[in-house]
Amino acid sequence: MERLFRTGEASPQASGLRERGQEVTRLEAFVDAAFAFALTMLVISVGSIPDSAEDLIAALKGIPAFAASFALIAMFWNAHARWSRRYGLDDGPTTRLSLVLVFLVMVYVYPLRMLFGSLFSWISGQWLPAGFEIHHWSDLQLMFSFYAIAYGTLGLVIAALFQHAWRLRGQLALSAEERVELLVHRNGWLVSPVVALLSLLLALFLHPDPSGWEPGLPGMAYVLLWVRQPLAHWTRRRALLAAPV
Asked: Average pLDDT of 17-40?
């Protein structure tokens, strides 16, 4: 019979939320190593070790793009790590979804670096290196499309992990507070594929004036990720109204 949970007792928290994943499984260790390798790919993709002051300055100019890429990859890693600690699931769906996450983050690395490199280059008037030459709208279109697919599918996998925990809420013996928090996180991560789809549609069907600001619209669409916060408040409020008095 397939094992569903990790061994170990759930650790109670002051907020009433319990951590059921008390042991690091081989799968979680593999996911951690894969994310670390993805970050390494961001660094070594810059080139060789600088051997002059000019090369050092050129390398340091890549820090903003690396920092932004690091933050996003760390966000997905943290989401998986917190999910693992919170629910402690160790079954088939967890393994499959985690492996898909690893695959996607490897695919995600290069379009992520290209996008942020181009963004900071544009903001700085080409003082910061783009690391990716854009000659036509079709080049930018390809970059935005690739990024949207990668970002959207990563968010969808994280949302699927929370949905998997929701299906097992009875076996996990989730409290009312834990169920609300699970729904908040699941709904919040569902925003990512929706916004990414909007960005993808803009990238595919927009015919902008290259000299105007319209080519940046697919990237500007990600500002809509701010709706996660009001969505979280709405989810909690709805849960409180539905709770028995």
From this structure: 84
